[in-house]
Every structure is written in C-alpha cells, then in structure tokens.
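Is this the right way to post structure tokens for a design question? Let me know if I should format differently. Anyway, here goes:
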C-alpha cells in the first residue's frame, strides 16, 4: 500500500468531492480546532501580502472566524455519515439520540437532527459566545421540527446532566478531548462518557497522528468557496516531547493581503493512538475499534474508514475510534 507522505495529502483526500465544504481530512491536523476551548476573540487582524491572488470576497475586517472555520475545518456531513452507519453496523439498528461533546457551534448536532425526524441531539460546550453563534447561524436555519429536536447547552462535558444522559452515541470530534492533558483526567472523562451513555451506547472519537504531528510546522491550504478562495493555515507552534504538550493555532490569509492571525488557538496534549485505546479500555469500554482510512492509490486517503488492527507509518493520518458501553 502506498504511504501517505504528507499531512496535507492525507488530510485533503475526501475534500475533492465538495468544493465549498472541506471534509474531515481538512479538519484533521488543521481542524483540530476543537480542544483547548478555542481561544476565541483574540484574533489579530493585519494587512500583509502573500495570500491567493485570485478574486475573492473575503477580507479580514469583515470575515467571521466561525464561517471560515466551517469552510476550512468542519465536515459535519461526513462525520454524521460515519457515525450513523457505524452505529448501525455495531448495534443492528439506527441510533436516535446523539450527544456532541465540545460542540462549539453545534453544527454536527444540527446535521443529526436534519437526517431523520426521529433523531434528537444534545450539544455541550462551555463557551457561551460560540453556542450563541451556532444558535443564530445554524440552529435558526433548521425547520421548526428539526430545531425542536436540538438542545445546545452551556455545560462542561463532564457534567452532561439529565439532558445529556441515556444517549445512544457520544461524539468527541476534532481531537477536542486532547484538552485533558493528564492521564487521570482523560480516563475520568472517558469513564464519565461511559456512565452517561444509555445501555448499548457507543462513544465515537477521532485521532490525529503520524510523525508530522510532532513537528513544529505550518500547513497552508487554499480553501475554495462560492465567495472566492482564502488561505487556511494550521500552525503547530510548539511541541514538547517530554510532556507531549503542544500549542497550535489557526490563521486565515485573504487575497487582498489582509490576515486574521490566531483566529483559534489550542493547548493540547498530543496523545498517541495506543494510549487512547488503553485509556478507553481502562475506563470500562468494550470493543475499542480503530477505523483506518483506505488508500486512493495516489498516496492519499480515500475517505473510507474501516476497522483495522494494523495501520501504516504515514507522515500524518486521521482515524476514528468507537468504544462500546
Ligand atoms: C473548536 S470546538 C470544537 C467544535 C466541534 N466539535 C468541531 O468538531 O469542530 C472545541 C470546543 O471545546 C469546548 N470545550 C473545551 N473544554 C470543554 C469542556 N470541559 N466542556 C465543554 N466544552 C469544552 C470549547 O469551548 C470549544 O468550543
């Protein structure tokens, strides 16, 4: 099997079919925008050269960082496709209630409600401004029936409460759970997820790894949208091999030369995949499964994730995990 030599190749793979909505590859390293409680608000807007010269309606002074994030990082359709079909394969029936931990704008929860009239979603995040943005810009665009089946709650993921308990699935995507940097802390979160899943519930996570994940480097990508292109930069600013702590940021550059620096920032522990599997088992989960991405025969991923016991030494990869209660 061909090795994926670069993160950008790996991460881009599924992007190719949807021009304005990058799929999960992009979110991988890049989108990792989740975890650390994205330092919202602190974005520095500057004028500088170097962005794409193609005509574009984007400029730093007016661009909304959440809109940019949606284009560059998130792929809620692909994410819901994966968890929906995998839950059915595991349990032999469709899931109904989804909890989205670290939901940010709640885009994934809204997509779940859109899929079937029986679906309900609960999104948990402790950033009120981001939840409010999701309410105004995503939730408000659902039909009345869909909207009535989504709750976005300002709550710590470790205290999901009655509304967030007894659910069929819990999702912790975009590596958001890497905010928990101590082993005990991450295991306690996993145990809490298990406790608050309904019987037969399944926990879904994603993971980013490969030797490039430990490099201090920037990954630039042009994002095409109907309004024109912009440049998305995933910046792995620092990595400490002793503690595993890493500082990352997302910047955006625009064709008119303006820039939005540090639109999102994260402080994480870069966990390894074996550690995550061990901690899920230690937290009481059964059948912890890794889903590895297939190969497009040109050195990139093909966007299809299947259960695997052995991976490849890719420069960068994204995979999913499921863990059963
Ligand atoms: C960028 S978002 C991830 C959004 C979305 N899950 C995605 O895939 O892009 C990460 C979110 O985690 C939230 N967060 C961090 N720690 C949290 C905690 N302990 N409980 C709830 N939310 C938390 C932050 O407020 C931030 O909005």
């Amino acid at each position: 099997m061909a090795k994926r030599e670069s993160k950008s190749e790996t991460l881009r793979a599924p992007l190719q079919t949807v021009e304005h909505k990058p799929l999960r590859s992009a979110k991988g390293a890049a989108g990792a925008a989740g975890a650390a409680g994205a330092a919202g608000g602190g974005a520095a807007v500057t004028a500088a050269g170097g962005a794409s010269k193609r005509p574009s309606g984007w400029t730093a002074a007016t661009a909304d960082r959440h809109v940019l994030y949606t284009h560059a990082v998130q792929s809620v359709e692909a994410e819901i496709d994966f968890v929906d079909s995998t839950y059915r394969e595991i349990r032999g029936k469709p899931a109904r209630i989804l909890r989205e931990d670290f939901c940010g704008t709640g885009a994934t929860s809204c997509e779940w409600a859109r899929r079937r009239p029986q679906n309900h979603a609960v999104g948990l995040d402790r950033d009120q401004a981001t939840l409010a943005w999701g309410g105004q810009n995503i939730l408000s665009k659902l039909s009345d029936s869909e909207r009535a089946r989504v709750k976005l709650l300002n709550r710590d993921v470790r205290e999901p409460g009655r509304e967030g308990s007894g659910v069929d699935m819990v999702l912790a995507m975009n590596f958001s759970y890497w905010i928990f940097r101590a082993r005990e802390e991450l295991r306690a979160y996993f145990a809490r997820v298990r406790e608050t899943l309904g019987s037969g519930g399944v926990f879904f996570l994603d993971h980013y790894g490969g030797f490039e994940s430990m490099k201090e480097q920037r990954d630039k990508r042009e994002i095409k949208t109907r309004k024109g292109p912009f440049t998305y930069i995933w910046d792995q600013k620092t990595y400490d091999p002793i503690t595993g702590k890493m500082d990352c940021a997302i910047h955006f550059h625009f064709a008119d030369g303006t820039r939005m620096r540090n639109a999102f920032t994260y402080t994480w522990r870069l966990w390894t995949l074996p550690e995550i599997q061990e901690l899920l088992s230690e937290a009481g989960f059964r059948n912890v499964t890794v889903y590895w991405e297939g190969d497009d025969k040109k050195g990139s991923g093909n966007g299809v994730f299947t259960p695997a016991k052995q991976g490849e030494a890719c420069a960068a990869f994204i995979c999913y995990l499921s863990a059963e209660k």
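Format looks fine. Someone answered above. Worth noting: The first strand starts at residue 44 and ends at 47. The pocket of S-adenosylmethionine is lined by residues 31, 33-35, 37-38, 74, 102-104, 124-127, 130, 156-157, 173-174, 176, 179 (CB under 6 Å).
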